[in-house]
Design goal:
Layout lengths: L1 E5 L4 H11 L6 E6 L11 E5 L5 H9 L6 E4 L20 H11 L1 H15 L3 E6 L15 H24 L3 E7 L23 H13 L8 E4 L8
Parallel strand pairs: 1-2, 1-4, 2-3, 4-5, 5-6, 6-7
Bound molecules: NADP nicotinamide-adenine-dinucleotide phosphate.
The site of NADP nicotinamide-adenine-dinucleotide phosphate has 28 residues, from helix 1.
Length: 234
C-alpha cells in the first residue's frame, strides 16, 4: 500500500508518517512539507515540497502517484503573524478569515480533484484532519469564527465528496477526523485549560488516528470521527 501524508512535517503529520512507515503493508510513504523540511529519513519515505494552496503543485504531485491506498491531509492553521482565533466578531479580520479558508478548506477539495483516479485502483481512504470545533451541532461556546467556519466548510466539502465518490470512486472511504487536543505548535498557545490527560502527544494521536483510518471501509464513507472512534455530529 502507498500512503500520502500531506503536511508530513507538522506535529501530527510527522507522527503519522512514522506510524505508517512501521506498518507492514506499507511499501511507500510520500510526505509533504511546506516551510519546514522533514527532519527524518527512511528507505520507504519520499519527501516532497508542496504549498497546498497551489493547484499547479498538487497536480504535479498527483502526476507522480498513479496508485494510492491512503491520502491523509494533516495541513492546518489556527494562528500566525500576530493573528489568532477571534473571541468576538468585532475582532474579525478579513485577511485572516480568508487565510483560514485557503489553507484549511480549499486544499482538501483540490487534493480530491487530482487524486481521485489514484484512489480508485484499490480499496482506499481519503481523510482530512478537521476539528471538533468545526461541528455546528456541538458549537456551545462560540468564538473562533475563522477556524470554526473553515473546518465546518471542510466537513461539508468532505460530506459532499463522499456522496459523489459513492458512485465515481466507490472503493474509497472519505473521512473527517478530529485528532483531539495534541501538543503541537498549532495548539501550543491554547493549552492552558486542557487537563494533562486530554493533551495528547503527537505519537499517541497518530496511533489513535491510524487505528480509526485502518478500521474504515467504503460503507463508512462520509462520517466525522473523533480520536476515540466515536462519531461526531456535523
Ligand atoms: N493540535 C491540535 O490540538 C489539533 C486539534 C484539532 C485539530 N487539529 C488539526 O490537525 C491538523 C494538524 O495540526 P498540527 O497540530 O499537527 O499542526 P502543526 O504542527 O502546526 O502542522 C501544520 C502543518 O501544516 C503545514 N502547512 C501550513 N500551511 C501550509 C501550506 N500552505 N501548504 C502546505 N502545508 C502547509 C505545515 O507545514 P510546514 O511546517 O512545512 O510549514 C505543517 O506540516 C490541522 O488541520 C489542525 O487544524 C489539531
Amino acid at each position: 500500500m502507498r500512503v500520502l501524508v500531506v503536511g508530513g512535517s507538522g506535529g501530527i503529520g510527522a507522527a503519522l508518517v512514522r506510524c505508517y512507515l512501521d506498518h507492514p503493508q506499507v511499501v511507500e510513504v510520500v510526505a509533504t512539507w511546506h516551510d519546514k523540511p522533514g527532519d527524518f529519513s527512511h528507505s520507504k519515505l519520499l519527501w516532497r515540497r508542496l504549498d497546498v494552496t497551489r493547484e499547479d503543485q498538487i497536480a504535479a504531485l498527483a502526476d507522480g502517484v498513479p496508485v494510492l491506498g491512503r491520502l491523509i491531509n494533516c495541513v492546518g492553521v489556527l494562528h500566525g503573524a500576530g493573528k489568532g482565533p477571534e473571541k468576538t466578531v468585532k475582532s474579525l479580520d478579513p485577511a485572516f478569515f480568508l487565510q483560514a479558508m485557503t489553507v484549511n478548506t480549499l486544499p482538501t477539495l483540490l487534493l480530491a480533484k487530482y487524486f481521485g483516479e489514484a484512489l480508485k485502483r484499490e480499496q482506499s481512504v481519503f481523510a482530512a484532519l478537521s476539528a471538533r470545533v468545526g461541528s455546528i451541532g456541538e458549537n456551545n461556546l462560540g468564538g473562533w469564527y475563522s477556524y470554526r467556519a473553515s473546518k465546518a466548510a471542510l466537513n461539508m466539502a468532505l460530506k459532499t465528496l463522499s456522496r459523489e465518490w459513492r458512485v465515481k470512486v466507490p472503493r474509497c472511504c472519505v473521512a473527517a477526523l478530529h485528532p483531539g487536543t495534541t501538543d503541537t505548535p498549532l495548539s501550543q498557545p491554547f493549552q492552558g485549560n486542557v487537563t494533562p490527560d486530554r493533551l495528547f502527544t503527537p505519537e499517541r494521536t497518530a496511533r489513535q488516528l491510524l487505528a480509526i483510518i485502518e478500521g474504515l471501509n467504503p460503507e463508512l464513507s462520509g462520517r466525522f470521527w473523533s480520536w476515540d472512534g466515536a462519531e461526531l455530529p456535523w
